[in-house]
Write a structure and sequence with these properties.
single chain; 406 residues; alpha/beta; nine-stranded mixed β-sheet; four-stranded mixed β-sheet; 9 helices; 24% helix; 25% strand
């Protein structure tokens, strides 16, 4: 197995800049030709946008704008051309919002991240990302195919059957959320099974240092991939484990949250991503994630920009158990119940697992009566706490993330 996925990873800054200067105007022109960008890009000359610094002249694109456009012009709001033969799927994410996808090649570009995690043709990947509606399962499956690995399309749930399959098949690598691998390993211990998993590529949530160390103690190297349903792969860790290396198929800007203004080098800000995907040309797409640029190059020899990884959310949206929980979902829950005046979601950790607690201001006294409604509206089960009316803090916070990321 070669050290690098391809020669793009180790090219000089000059060669990368020259490639960007060619590809970026072409991508801006593709976007301008789509109905979704028609108004915002009406006065944009694609030929003048040849570097990441030039992107600051363009507007920021937020997911809420895409969602509104999709309601008016389904299914994709004019931000992708559904007549393109390379688009073979449409996925749904919470919101709901819809994203195009493809089963052709490594469309989501996760092959590079899997290769950096040491996964290759001799591996069988235990893929525990969801295959239902969301694209995560196919994202990592196509990445596995790109590096020649075989895949067990496990999805989530039915942990005992997961262990049985892992033991019988001999899966050697794991792809999924950081927490779920521990659940599988603990269940394997309980069942008296020894698994062969020695590599892991995780995403969909924070990989806490203590959990990474627990996996290392079990003989598993666990590295992170950072991506979204809209963008595909954005950045990934290598064996150096010094920041995350930006994928060769995207450009990243770090800006002051809620704006398009770049922060000073090294400062924390919101991640904006511009893709080179011709099927879905997202330009200055606001992820809502916080990160910062790291100086220098990775000791592994890859030369692209590095970021410090996921450092929280620019808004109150939180990722809990691999799922986003948004303030508007909390508002929807409150609106469903006349007797509820306010609600607050608190994200914590219990050992190495995410915990969601929903505090509800109400005169009612039966917490169990709200369990199904919480699961339906927030798409996650959580602990329910009844609190007295007017007792929650008046600080504007509806989602409080108490987890520590250092």
């Amino acid at each position: 197995m070669s050290q690098y996925f391809d020669t793009l990873e180790t090219r000089s800054a000059q060669d990368r800049a020259a490639d960007i200067a060619k590809k970026l105007p072409e991508q801006i022109a593709r976007a301008k030709a789509l109905p979704g960008y028609a108004e915002a890009f009406a006065d944009v000359d694609p030929a003048k946008i040849t570097s990441v610094e030039d992107l600051v002249a363009l507007p920021v694109l937020r997911k809420s704008e895409i969602g509104a456009a999709q309601k008016a012009h389904p299914p994709l709001g004019g931000y992708a051309d559904m007549t393109r033969e390379s688009i073979s799927h449409v996925f749904q994410s919470p919101g709901p919002i819809y994203e195009p996808g493809s089963n052709g090649g490594d469309w989501f570009r996760f092959g590079r991240a899997l290769h950096a995690a040491g996964i290759g043709k001799d591996d069988i990947v235990h893929n525990c990302f969801a295959y239902h509606l969301t694209p995560a399962g196919i994202m990592f499956e196509s990445g596995a195919r790109a590096v020649g690995a075989k895949v067990l399309p496990a999805g989530i749930g039915q942990t005992e059957l997961q262990v049985r399959a892992a033991a019988d098949i001999g899966t050697t690598a794991y792809a999924g959320t950081p927490d779920y691998l521990k659940i599988i390993l603990d269940k394997a211990d309980e069942m008296g099974e020894t698994l062969k998993i020695t590599k892991a590529i995780v995403g969909g949530g924070a990989l806490f240092p203590s959990l990474r160390q627990e996996y290392a103690d079990r003989g598993i190297q666990c590295l992170q991939g950072y991506g979204t349903a809209d963008l595909g792969s954005v950045a990934y860790e290598s064996e150096a484990m010094e920041g995350m290396i930006v994928d060769e198929g995207v450009l990243i800007e770090i800006v002051t949250p809620g704006t398009g203004t770049p922060v000073a080098p090294g400062e924390v800000g919101e991640v904006l991503v511009t893709t080179f995907n011709p099927d879905y040309p997202l330009i200055r797409f606001a992820t809502g994630d916080l990160s910062a640029v790291m100086e220098g190059e990775s000791p592994c020899g890859r030369t692209n920009m590095r970021i410090k990884g996921w450092m929280g959310r620019a808004d109150q949206t939180a990722k809990i158990k691999g799922m986003f929980v948004r303030p508007e979902q909390v508002a929807q829950f409150v609106a469903k119940h006349e007797e509820v005046s306010k609600a607050r979601v608190i994200a914590t950790r219990d050992g190495e697992m995410d915990v969601m607690t929903v505090q509800i201001e109400t005169t009612a006294d039966d917490a169990t009566a709200y369990g199904a409604s919480v699961a339906d509206t927030l798409k996650l089960k959580g602990k329910i706490e009844i609190v007295a009316p007017d007792s929650l803090p008046k600080d504007g916070i509806v989602i409080e993330d108490q987890r520590k990321y250092d």
